[in-house]
Design brief:
The chain is an all-alpha fold. It has one domain. It is built from 11 helices and no strands. The radius of gyration is 19 Å and the shape is globular.
């Protein structure tokens, strides 16, 4: 446990030297302020302008889903960038044979950031949410968002050879969270084309009030994580 803690603190020191990664950790708060205050204000302006009862408000639940995924994605993105740096410098494999070990390294680089993201999202989501989410829904969205963050971080480190490639892969991999949009706009069975995306089932669970879909999202996330983790370990 001590080795994991020291390795995590080492990652924090690296973050302090990279301002982009440091600022990324505060992105959820900035986004939360925008979601909570700017979007309702924009809704008032637009409804008055077009003389309509609602324009954005029917999709407030979708915005809550995005926010629940934002913190985990940002924190796991930071850890993925650090891990890529270590892979590029050939230090990650050497850390496996230290007292930290393979399990400890994975815990320090992916597990601890995911736990922190879960805690922060659990705190921030009730503050910045736009809909009346229940406690169970908040926890479900937070777990789903955390798992999505782990998937994206593993995609980054698995498909990238360096930080430059990692930035490009990040932009592509974050498109996965837009699977949550589909159930809100497409009601035809063609929506199931994206059934492999966990975010799709989270969106379906909230838009159609079907809690069972959350369990499908969790199961799919576990499969994604298992497969990507195996590929990552083979890579390094």
């Amino acid at each position: 446990m001590k080795a994991i803690r020291l390795s995590f603190f080492q990652m924090l020191q690296y973050m302090r030297r990279d301002m982009m990664l440091f600022v990324a950790c505060f992105a959820p708060i900035l986004a939360g302020l925008m979601f909570r205050y700017a979007i309702p204000f924009l809704e008032i302006v637009l409804t008055d302008l077009f003389n309509l009862p609602a324009i954005i408000s029917p999709y407030y639940a979708l915005i809550d889903i995005f926010f629940a995924m934002l913190s985990p994605v940002m924190f796991c993105f930071v850890s993925a960038m650090v891990s890529l740096e270590e892979v590029d410098e050939n230090t990650a494999a050497y850390l496996f044979i230290t007292p930290l070990g393979k399990t400890g390294y994975l815990a320090a680089r992916f597990g601890v950031p995911a736990v922190i993201a879960f805690i922060i999202t659990t705190i921030l989501l009730p503050v910045f949410k736009l809909t009346s989410l229940s406690f169970v829904e908040i926890i479900s969205l937070t777990i789903g968002g955390t798992l999505q963050g782990i998937i994206i971080s593993l995609l980054i480190v698995t498909l990238s050879s360096n930080k430059l490639e990692g930035m490009a892969v990040t932009k592509l991999s974050t498109l996965m969270i837009f699977g949550a949009v589909i159930p809100f706009f497409i009601k035809h069975n063609i929506q199931y084309v994206l059934f492999l995306l966990p975010a799709f089932w989270i969106g379906k669970a909230i838009s159609e009030n079907t809690p069972f879909c959350v369990l499908l999202a969790f199961a799919l996330s576990a499969i994604w994580i298992f497969f990507l983790l195996k590929q990552y370990l083979q890579k390094i």
